[in-house]
Amino acid sequence: MFLSLIFVVFLFAVIQGFVRVVVFFWEWLSRGDRLGEEQVELAESALEESEDVLERELARAERKRGLGRIFARWHASNEAIDEYLDHLRLGWYQAVIIFFLGSMAGLLIEEVWMLVSAGLTESRVGLVWGPFSPLYGLGAVLLTWLSFFLRSRGAAGWQVFLVSAVVGGALEQFAGWSMSTFFDAESWTYLHLPDHITQWVAWRFLAAWGVLGLVWCRAVMPRLLYQIGMPTTRRQAVFVTLVAVYLVADVAMTLACFDRKAERDAGEPPSNAFEQWVDTNYNDEFISSRFENLKIGGERDLVDADGNIVLDESGRAVTRGGEGA
Fold first, then answer.
1. Which run of H or E residues covers position 265?
2. 140: left (phi over 0), alpha (psi -120 to 50) or beta
3. Any stretches that span the bilayer, and where are they (predicted)?
């Protein structure tokens, strides 16, 4: 009990220290040489307008009592954020940060969910470097752009739900189809679910995408964009550019590794020095340990003519290689 308490205190201290470092670094980025006058003026004007609204609404909130004051303050915060978003120019700066954060947050949520629901602790990363799952990052960016657009059009909740479900399903279909077509690989399949539409799309997950999009549009996106803001210094622009370059290199390297894995399975030797380097440093053992939920080539589930997963006598899925999963 005592050791557990010590561990909790230590963990809290580590998290608190990490948050302080991030806050300090973010504040440091906001100082230094400024960007162009137009960009800085736009960002500062949006912030000033937002602060004016916040000050006015908070003054009104002070006239209320009890819970009414608490709700009024929350309303004031929302009004200020809405005012800021009315002036926000959405661009690459916000997209890179959201992709970066979404890739990590989505991976963490998925791994926690798999641990709670199935007792699995397998690695579910999607890139060779870093704790990222690009499908979630791309989904976060698409939902942000979509939510920002629908917000500007005053879309109703049911419209946000339907559009989010369609976009989420299309993203899953495209990602799953691309992996299967170009790399003979799969990270997930819904063929075992009674409500599957395709191998990578199921009705229950379309509903989940719809709910996620609605929550993102109404609760997450406004405050997230408000916190990210618009770039005003060269430090911010340079840092986010470096993050973007790293992520592009990470995605490119991952695709190269998958491509070589498929070629190795087909018996094709490396054709140049780079492919030899990939085979040496990112061999089959690395791929299987890094992407534990990924199935490539003969490791994929065998599917019959009706599109159903073939099971053996014990009820386990039969792989294309002829073995039970």
1. helix 234-265
2. alpha
3. 6-26, 90-109, 129-150, 157-177, 197-217, 237-256
- E-assigned strand segments in 32-125: none
Angle among Cα 147, 153, 158 to the nearest 5 degrees reads: 65
Question: Are the CB atoms for 135 and 106 separated by under 8 Å?
Answer: yes
275 vs 292: CA distance, rounded Å: 23
Q: What's 34-49 look like in SS3?
A: ECCHHHHHHHHHHHHH
Written as tens digits, the pLDDT of the chain (325 aa) is: 666 678 677 777 877 888 788 888 888 888 878 888 888 888 888 889 888 888 888 888 788 887 888 888 888 888 999 999 988 989 999 999 999 999 998 888 888 877 777 676 777 888 999 999 998 999 899 989 988 988 888 889 899 999 999 999 999 999 999 888 887 888 888 888 889 899 899 999 999 999 988 999 888 899 999 999 999 999 999 999 999 999 999 999 999 998 898 888 888 898 899 999 999 999 989 988 888 777 776 666 667 666 666 666 666 766 666 555 5
**309 strand-pairing partners:** 303
**Cα–Cα distance, 199 to 210 (Å, whole number):** 19
Read off the tokens for 218: 């109404």
Query: Domain residues of the chain, as ranges?
Result: 45-87, 90-293
* Full-model pTM: 0.85
Give backbone dihedrals phi and psi of 202, rounded to 5 degrees, phi first: -135, 150
